[in-house]
Amino acid sequence: MSPLMKRIPREIRNGWSKYIVIFLLLVGTISLCSGFFVADESMLKAYNDSFDKYNIEDGHFMTKNPLNEAQRKNISRHVTIYDLPYVERTLSSSKIRIFKQRHTINKVDVLEGRLARKEGEIAIDRLYAKNNHLSIGNYLDNKWKIVGFVALSDYSALFENNSDSMFDAIKFGVGVVNEKTFNQLTRSQMKYCYAWKYNKKIKDEKKAADNLLKVINEETSLDDYVPRYQNQAITFTGSDMGSDRAMVMMLLYIMIIIMAFVFVVMISDTIMNEANVIGTLRATGYTIKELIFHYMSAPMIVTLISCLVGNILGYTYFKTLMASLYYNSYSLTSYKTIWSISALVETTVVPLILMIVIHYVALRRKLSLSVLKLIKRDLSKSKRKHAVYLPRHIPFFTRFRMRIIFQNIGSYIVIFVGILFANLLLLFALALPDMIHNYQDVMKSQMIADYQYILKVPSSIQSEDKLKSMISLLSYQREVETDQEAEKFSACSLKAKESGAKEEDVMVYGIHKKSRYVNIDHQGDGVYISSSYHEKYGYDKGDTIILHEPYEKKTYKLKVQGIYNYPGSVCVFMDQEKLNEDILKTGSQYFSGYFSDKPITDIKKENIATIIDFDTVTKISRQLDASMGKMMSVVQGISLVMFMVIIYLLSKVIIEKNGQSISIIKILGYSNREAAKLYILATSLVVLLSIIVSIPLEYYLLKPVFIAMMKTEMSGWIPFDINKIVYIKMFIYGVLTYTVVAIMEYRKIQRVSMSEALKNVE
Amino acid sequence: MEFLVLKNVKKSYGQDENLVHVLKGIDLCLNKGELCVMLGPSGCGKSTLLNIIGGIDSCDEGQIFVDGKDISQMKEKDLTKYRRFHLGYIFQMYNLIPNLTVRENIEVGAYLSDNPLDLDYLLRVLGLYEHQNKLPHELSGGQQQRTSIGRAVIKNPEILLCDEPTGALDYRTSKDILGLLEDINEKYGTTILMVTHNDALAHMADHIVRIKDGEILSDQVNKKVSIKQIEW
Q: Is B5 on the interface with A (CB under 8 A)?
């Protein structure tokens, strides 16, 4: 063992305050990430296993009337059918979908309490209960006693309708009652839902689903048809878990790289102080490799210990914390922690490799100077040969500070990058809740209409047989006619399949020429896209959007005639007649919904497919708030700690590097305040400037991240509007956090002894 | 006129068996405008005494009067003022601020005075005018020490404390530097207290103090000779 190794414990002891801060930051980051990865992987495994364990459906369909024996028999030739009827009850502020106990398909996991055994008992979804502050023993709708909290394997994300842009575990829940209780429920309100499982293993889910659709369509009229791969209530959770992992990993590695540079700045300072010693060691025969190994040992030991401690904490404490974040969003079944090799590699091996590579490159550059140069302490590779000219009319103190900034430009660049990254996290954490609330406020005034009624349209209207189609239309119109004041519109749901984005349902509205709700130009040959569509996918006037039929191969190319200011959903507006004729292929009299200022009460419930009101439109914001709200406080905390640690460490290095100069000016008669004015104010100026410069930059950095997140993770859109208050908050947080660091640094300057300058070291 | 008076100044370092008495009761009196050379071997306590007079270190016992004020009783804030307004310090290793130019290093001293000497004039006197925009590492040892002297004298201090100012310089440069100190003493009437172990330099002083083992061995007035005439 090299005798130099004996210095390493001393080096760590002497610089303990720096190392402990880095250690704590690394442990914090790694334990959070490790906990997240372990929880994510364990739950992802539990989620993947749940398909077999709970026998999750391959899809489901809904019919207006129950299937008769013949229909059932014909469909059963292709798949196994399971009855999955339900009723829905509207409670004071939410809706609950009630199933009878499932024994064979989409089985239920009891998380707390028990299943409903007696009449009048119900076991409800755990997350819905939590969000609505319901406990076991409470009564639901004054009727059913809650006896257990459960997770329904086909509702890991509580989507009320598959076309919803976001699930809503606050206003929508599911529950199971025993068969006797279920049979007592009103039959007229029963929804006839059937789950299916393919009889043999299939290769192409889409093809199989398309074929089955044809079969079922021949037998009965469908109200809904959702193959599993399209069922957001089942698939959303799995895809969200994967994408979060990539984001967390990216954050971890950016953090590790920044910390590696902080270490490099610290080591560079040590090398500068010990240049003559290094030169002497090289002269005595020590190789560059041995010296590199020596100087990188302390940071590597700190990193390794941080990784190990971080992983231990991750596997024990943070795993539960991170799992609870998922449990706050999703109705997951129970999971078992699995020993994750990939989590260990990602949070230990990769950070270590990153540290080693960055250190090796930086140290190799520093230590490859000639022996003579090192002995003479002539580090000209890194030292500026000549002074930068500064005009004399600049006040002396300002010039002094500028010299400090030039001298420590490397440290200040790392500070800037650190602030940029920390502020990016901070902006995200501050802006998201603000955007959510802002969206809710904006939507209050920007709804197309207070109520949009989407009607259930019989498929016979679109029949090839013109006569049959016309008769159907007439009968339908009579059924859904209202005497209340409302405006008719046509609508259809198409799919947008943008590259790098999740498939999204796009509502295409056909607007009446004299509409008082949507004001568009009906003369052009194109369509209007909502401002959400424009912002999310970047389409502009003159572009062409491509939309697809959900269950057919048909696509539509629509030219964008303008952007319509509507942030409520990703949708398209066009002339009603054009929609009817060109896309829906129905007569010009066709309509499928109403805009209304008041609730419409004279249309039968069974004729209404969906009611879009303020609650529906703001669903995405509520869910984001519920699932990410708590996480945002954690992210705020992390970003501020990171901000503080980076500035603290680097300003400490700057003060240590200038310890002798500070000592000299003190001997000359400068007060501590004046020394601080020079040495702390230089850093303060850089920090302040970094915060100010970073604020507008953050907007442009965060915007693509936000758009990518919205595109890949969710349907719908929340306008990327950051309130000025958020920037002011960010500035204040930054300044306050820095003030804490500045106070610590002031104390350090106070402690610089005058004897430092008397050590006679140049 | 008595300007600097030391009465029974004692200083020790360490504790118990490691206790070392560095100064064992120093009495000294310097008149205003005197050039005093303090001689003694390494470790005799002369630098410690200089640091105590400079308000950088404190004594355990005794009193130090500068222009009638007892600095041994002063708090840190007053000591800072004392160093700021009355004192100039010159070190053996120059102690320049490495990231400031020659001109700016001298401005560090000028900032402390309400009535500093003219900087351009001083740069010319010091022979540094041509080098004023250079950084310390671009200068020779002599030029660095001249810069250090410039920094100390620009505020026109009443006392100039010099700790081995030529200790790191060659003969020729040492003579230049000492000539400069001599000129400052004569021109501005600055009281200079210079610590050295070079016996030959005693001849340039008005007052010679010899120290050994923390005690004053001799304290004598001298008829000074110009440095130009001194050889060593």
A: no
